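Example S7 (structure tokens).
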């Protein structure tokens, strides 16, 4: 296997840290860049990771012990940050995770929406121009989201273009997208900007549309059959930064722990929408990324990848988490049905995204949602117990409405 020089933008994040860990363990040389904004924003809004994660300095030291790693604290939206890093480090691949990634955060209000637009779109534009002006052969691996497509009533292609016929005439056009939050729209804009740059200048780009990720660990975090706490990645369980499976697993664990302590049964919340998405485990996300890095696009310089494993609906996920607690802890987690869904989204809809590229590259998915639940819930209870109980007022509690004047109101609670 080729030894590569890889820059990871957003290396301190939920995905960036485990990917960095994987790459250095494989013998690649990695430069991580991060401005620590996710740590800052989550702590400002009172939703820090429920796993205590090491300080950036301690992480840096640990990664240096494990492999060829260096770290730069910097904001990639600033002029010359990426460009001078490329000139110094000379990467062959740049993985770009460094964006504001919480849809609910972007829907909080004007300032958060504008920050998300600026941070995400400008960061990607800086990356495009930095690569163009230094080494246009660099492979850009850009993380976008399946949420860019929305939920159309046709199969979602895994390609940049689709044939559109209108009034009898046809042409190849970029795949239509209709995102469901300001955050998701930033990813649509990024994808268009990257496609345009690839066409203008032949830049080599993998544009990944990834579904929501779940999971608390990867194999690289395990030493002597035990998770090494100094290698844990962040685990977000608030409604702003938590992705649905992680958030519901944490809320259900909190409900159980709180019951043991106080006999009070906290409910899990149900949005009343059988919203379908394509999900992927943290382990499989890292495996897929590794494979895409090792196999850059060849025939076509702009490659679109739909990165997910299983299509699941949100009600099914909630039910399976409840089943898990009944079977393993003899505890039924109550459900609070919301009066109104805080999000504007379809329920009970058609959803058939194509995904064959990862399978054709030989990626074998390690986990299904159900097979991952045991590790997730064990880890959440072991590593997150103190913070779950301390922060029980916001763990998994819906707060942000897409609709004007939405507020948390409960229709009924099922015990
Ligand atoms: N977690 C998921 O379920 C998921 C699903 C699909 C796509 N994604 C995308 O994958 C990427 C990584 O997601 P994550 O879950 O690890 O999020 P994260 O917030 O944990 O990580 C993103 C990292 O980028 C950093 N960052 C943000 N803006 C920056 C800037 N201007 N300069 C430097 N660093 C900056 C943050 O501090 C953070 O450490 C994001 O782009 C996200 O949109 C995530």
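Recovered sequence:
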């Amino acid at each position: 296997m080729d030894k590569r020089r890889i820059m990871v933008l957003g290396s301190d994040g939920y995905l960036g840290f485990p990917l960095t860990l994987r790459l250095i363990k494989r013998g690649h040389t990695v430069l991580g860049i991060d401005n620590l904004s996710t740590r800052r924003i989550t702590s400002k809004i009172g939703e820090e990771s429920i796993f205590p994660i090491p300080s950036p300095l301690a992480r840096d030291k640990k990664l240096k012990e494990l492999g060829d790693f260096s770290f730069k604290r910097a904001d990639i939206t600033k002029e010359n940050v990426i460009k001078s890093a490329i000139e110094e480090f000379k990467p062959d691949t740049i993985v770009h995770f460094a964006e504001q990634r919480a849809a609910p955060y972007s829907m909080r209000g004007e300032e958060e929406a504008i920050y998300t637009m600026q941070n995400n779109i400008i960061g990607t534009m800086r990356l495009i121009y930095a690569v163009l002006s230094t080494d246009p052969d660099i492979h850009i691996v850009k993380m976008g989201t399946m949420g860019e497509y929305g939920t159309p009533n046709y199969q979602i292609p895994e390609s940049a273009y689709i044939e559109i016929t209108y009034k009898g005439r046809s042409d190849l056009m970029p795949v239509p997208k209709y995102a469901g939050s300001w955050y998701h729209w930033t990813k649509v804009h990024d994808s268009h900007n990257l496609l345009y740059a690839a066409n203008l200048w032949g830049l080599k780009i993998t544009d990944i549309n990834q579904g929501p990720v779940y999971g608390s660990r990867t194999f690289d975090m395990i030493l002597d059959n035990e998770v090494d706490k100094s290698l844990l990645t962040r685990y977000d369980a608030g409604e702003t930064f938590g992705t649905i499976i992680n958030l519901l697993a944490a809320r259900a664990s909190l409900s159980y722990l709180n019951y043991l302590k106080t006999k009070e049964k906290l409910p899990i919340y149900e949005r009343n929408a059988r919203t379908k998405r394509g999900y992927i485990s943290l382990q499989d996300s890292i495996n897929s990324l590794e494979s895409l890095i090792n196999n850059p696009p060849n025939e076509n310089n702009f490659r679109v990848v739909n990165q997910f494993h299983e299509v699941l609906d949100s009600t099914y996920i909630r039910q399976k988490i409840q089943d898990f607690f009944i079977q393993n802890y003899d505890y039924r987690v109550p459900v609070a049905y919301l009066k109104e869904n805080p999000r504007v989204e379809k329920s009970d809809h058609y959803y058939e995204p194509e995904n064959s590229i990862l399978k054709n590259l030989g990626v074998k998915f390690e986990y299904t949602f159900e097979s991952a639940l045991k590790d997730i819930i064990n880890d959440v209870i072991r590593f997150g117990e103190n913070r779950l109980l301390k922060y029980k007022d916001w763990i998994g509690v819906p707060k942000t409405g897409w609709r004007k004047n939405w507020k948390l109101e409960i229709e009924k609670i099922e015990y």
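Notes on this example. The pocket of nicotinamide-adenine-dinucleotide is lined by residues 10, 12-16, 33-38, 75-77, 97-101, 119, 123, 143, 145, 210, 212-213, 234, 243 (CB under 6 Å).
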